[in-house]
Amino acid sequence: MGMRYKTTVICQTCAKVKNICQTCLLDLEYGLPTQVRDTALAIDHEAPTSDINREYYAQNMEGKVRYDDDRPIMAGLTTIHQCS
After folding, report:
1. How far is Cα 34 from Cα 27, in angstroms, rounded to an integer?
2. What residue segments make up the domains of the chain, in order of their start?
């Protein structure tokens, strides 16, 4: 009892591309909100604004994410994020 239901806010591909949590939208490395992280690190995401270009961009990113997921991960180098 007292547990809250967590909902997915963004898709898995978008979360992997931006390195953020799907439910709380915090950066996985620093634990900061994405806007704060992007401003502090001067990161500029070049995501397109039109619908068709967004779909094309998402498809390309999905392929890239799948390729990166197939690579072996060395133990101890990944960080685990726990939403509260």
Report:
1. 6
2. 12-69
Q: Report the C-alpha dihedral over residues 44, 46, 51, 52, rounded to 10 degrees.
A: -170
State the sign of the Cα–Cα–Cα–Cα dihedral 70, 75, 77, 81.
Answer: positive
SS3 41: helix
Residues 6+ apart with CB under 8 A from 25: 9, 10, 33, 34
How far apart are alpha carbons 46 and 67 in whole angstroms? 20
Residue 33 pairs in a beta bridge with 26
pLDDT digits (tens, 9 = 90+) for 11-66: 888 888 888 898 888 999 888 998 898 888 887 767 677 888 888 887 887 877 66
